[in-house]
Amino acid sequence: MSNQPDLDGLGLAALVRDRKTSAAELLEAAVERAEKAQAEINCFSALYPDLARQQIAEGGLAGPYAGVPFLVKDLGVEVKGAPVTSGSRAFQGNVASRDSTLVERFRKAGLVFFGTTTSPEFGLTLTTESTLYGQTRNPWDTTRIAGGSSGGAAAAVAAGVLPVAHASDGGGSIRIPAACCGVFGLKPSRGRMPMGPAKTEGWNGLSTVGVVSRTVRDTAALLDLTSGPETGSRYVATPQSLPYLKELERDPGPLRIALWPVAPNGTQPDADAAEGLANTVKLLESLGHTVIEAAPEIDGTALAKAALFTISANIAALVEERGMVRGHPVTDDDLEPITASMVNLGRTVPMVELAKANNTFITAAIAYERFLDAGKFDLTLSPTLHRAPDLLGTMALTAPSDQMGAAVAGFAPHCALFNQTGCPAMSVPLHWTAPTATAPAGLPIGMMFGARYGREDLLISLAGQLERAAPWAQRKPPVWVG
Predict the structure, then answer these.
(1) For the chain, which terminal residue's Cβ has fewer other Cβ atoms within 10 angstroms, N or C?
(2) Structural domains in the chain?
(3) Active-site residue 73, yes or no?
(4) Catalytic pick from 100, 149, 150, 213?
(5) Among 234, 237, 205, which Cα is nearest to 223's?
(6) What is the DSSP-derived secondary structure letter of residue 336?
(7) Per-residue pLDDT reduced to its tens digit, 387-436
């Protein structure tokens, strides 16, 4: 059916439910689109349609997404029988022996798994490029990055392979690719989503999971279907009072929003991002919201150091575990150069520094919510990206470390704060740059809204209002495989 790529996931499920198509037909059409996209933007680390055909043949598909093809990100989340490498040569040949808890919930919702989207090694940078799989290209401009670390997922959704795909976020990795590719991405609160079964948190609580989608409706529906406690959860996010799909249907009351343009590390948005902010403020005010420029006092330098130590220690532990599983140690030659340097740092971080890092995150969380309370703000508004998507290569884990570090620091410097505080945040595709020779439809720059801990309901309600007022799903990039 030619109109499949224009429907969201719930719309595709309705076709199956109404017997206007079948799960098998949806799958084969999605596989065909995926192969086209792979040739143009390299957004898959693996396609395994035979596993999906088997899942369909076994029957029993039920739930709101029954029969809808789906993709998972190649980073930690396991689909039984499918390869999972986390973008690293150290994990080549690794095949999942079980489903992750999140995948179990996706299956219960009726989703059918047929492929894995690309990630940089261990999700460690803001572009999806790796020695193992090469460069994932942005469908709006194939000379530029799709963002990271969920760049394969965002590129596949933006290019029309599917309307929604799994993603994860340890420092902006849902929101940054969503912004780069012109789709919607919400990072849930810490403790909202399952990370098991082996572990219930990633990167000491910095990382979480979710989706990127062309419509807010799919994000809301899948949050309803997959969130909640899991076995061994040490903390659980505040339960919502209404299903997120219900929140989507109603406009929020007039909100008081803090405009926060300058990042905690002092980075100013460039002219494109500033224009996007200004246009977003006008849109918000036209909808009855109040926007006031204000910012919390947060030590960006201390946060960056704390994140580096925390993530490096966790990656060093992961590499050690992998060496034990495969029977011989992971060496620097198995890793990207910057990954190897982080592993070596992680092996030497004093225990006291990890305690200090956690205290730094706690201090930032307190400062953020006290700022909201003092100003009677409901949300904050910042650019997701402080400039348009970079050219490929600048932030790869093989780039010169000084060049890469500077590029990362100024690209999306507000994002990691919401991983460090545990608060939810979303990137909304509300602005595109002027057309260029390589980007004839312009380049997307997302606008990021942050909320108090546990207030995904407010974010989704506002996102639905913005989507109705300034719809984006009809915008198609030059690489469109639908």
Answers:
(1) N
(2) 4-469 (3.90.1300.10)
(3) yes
(4) 149
(5) 237
(6) -
(7) 999 999 999 999 999 999 999 999 999 999 999 999 999 999 999 999 99
